[in-house]
Design a protein that fits this description.
There is one protein chain. This protein has 396 residues and is mainly alpha-helical. The chain has a single domain, classed as Rhodopsin 7-helix transmembrane proteins (Rhopdopsin 7-helix transmembrane proteins, Up-down Bundle). The strands form two sheets. It has a two-stranded antiparallel sheet. Strands 3-4 form a two-stranded antiparallel ribbon. Helix 1 packs antiparallel against helix 2. The relative contact order is 0.12.
């Protein structure tokens, strides 16, 4: 028997169509444990170890910052991204390892539907959290004093979790347990026959690709481009109000966190683009794809899974100075230079306290300009008193 492997949406090479059985009584190579299954088990095991080590380390560091009341908005978002990657690590990867070991599906119809749901939930959640991070960077750089997003970031994360569940739910209806028509007792978890036509299959694939790949890519490109343009504009503006009000000292920190966000998305694009290009190739020219070695598609899917391993590495590179939690941590590696006004070294985010001080400073500055204009017409004594008050209050 030959197995015609079709590309699926986020599910990888799991849609298998039963075809004709050979006259030989021996099962074909695809239905028996072979060298390809051994390679899959080895690669998934290595990826799982790397991803678990990296994401658990990142999550522990973020939880320490949260317990120390130093967690920022970005820390909360990165915490959810690490949780999403850990779901991929401990739900999807062990499933792939066990499935490659047994070759056929041995867990029954209910577990087939449930595991296909959990198989994609972490992937969708990771994509939707990336969208939240992109929007957060947009507000942090273009509208740093906007309190609506500061209060709504948790609602955005809750929406990301709900949308990930809704997007993964069709997997439970499409995938089902089916017995081979010619080999009794040989079961497989397949999506074959669930959708009426190939047009429906293609539409389902497009929806998956849009939600998991195109949406986070487009949103991040737009938000990052707008943020970068704003940084360049402020750098070329001599009388930047934000710089004079005190928030400008965090311009470098915002630039660094923007670089980290762009790097995370570049890694996302690098890991997932080959797989989705292969999928599009399949729908454009199925015959040429079917002539390729089935291991090629599995390699594309395996490469996309490396995204869960790469995210903690990116975070560690951009936050290496924040990983010291000892009493003298803020003075290590020059992270707290003399005269620096960053509370914890080169902070990657504007804290809530800093935003409050910035708003107060901006309000005082506006009041100061109005008083200065009034006192210029009516004398200088009140102006001098106003300036003295500003100095005493630490505003100037």
């Amino acid at each position: 028997m030959d197995i015609d492997e079709k590309v699926s949406g986020p599910g990888g090479a799991s849609q298998k169509n039963w075809t004709h059985l050979n006259t030989s009584n021996e099962l074909p190579l695809e239905m028996r444990f072979n060298h390809g299954h051994m390679v899959s088990i080895t690669v998934y095991t290595v990826l799982m170890i790397i991803s678990a080590t990296g994401n658990l380390t990142v999550l522990s560091q973020l939880l320490k910052r949260r317990r120390a009341a130093r967690a920022s908005r970005l820390d909360l978002l990165l915490m959810h991204l690490a949780v999403a990657d850990l779901m991929v690590t401990f739900l999807m990867m062990p499933l792939e390892i066990a499935w490659a070991g047994t070759v056929q599906w041995l867990a029954g119809d209910f577990m087939c539907r449930l595991m296909m749901f959990t198989r994609t939930f972490g992937l969708y959640l990771s994509s939707f959290v990336l969208i939240c991070i992109a929007v957060d960077r947009y507000y942090a750089i273009l509208k740093p004093l906007n309190v609506k997003w500061e209060a709504g970031v948790r609602k955005a994360l809750a929406t990301a979790w709900i949308c990930a569940g809704l997007a993964s739910l069709p997997q439970s209806f499409i995938f089902h347990l089916e017995e081979h028509p010619d080999v009794k007792g040989y079961f497989q978890c397949v999506s074959y026959g669930s959708l009426p036509t190939e047009r429906h299959e293609f539409a389902y694939f497009l929806v998956n690709m849009t939600l998991m790949y195109i949406a986070p890519l487009v949103s991040t490109l737009y938000c990052s481009s707008a943020a970068l343009a704003e940084i360049i504009r402020r750098a070329n503006t001599a009388n930047d109000k934000m710089r004079r009000s005190g928030v400008g000292i965090l311009g470098r920190a915002r630039a660094r966190t923007l670089k980290m966000t762009v790097t995370i998305v570049l890694v996302f694009f690098t890991c997932w683009s080959p797989y989705y290009c292969y999928c599009l190739w399949y729908w454009i020219d199925k015959e040429s794809v079917r002539s390729l070695d089935p291991a090629f598609q599995k390699a594309m899917w395996l490469f996309s899974c490396t995204n869960s391993c790469a995210n903690p590495i990116v975070y560690g590179v951009f936050n290496r100075n924040r990983w010291h939690t000892g009493p003298n941590a803020r003075y290590r590696n020059g992270s707290m230079r003399r005269g620096s006004r960053f509370p914890f070294g080169d902070s990657m985010e504007i804290s809530a306290a800093t935003l409050v001080r910035a708003r107060s400073s901006l309000t005082s500055e506006r009041n100061g300009r109005r008083d200065s204009s009034f006192n210029t017409k009516n004398g200088t004594q009140k102006q001098l008193n106003h300036n003295n008050n500003l100095v005493n209050n630490g505003v100037v």
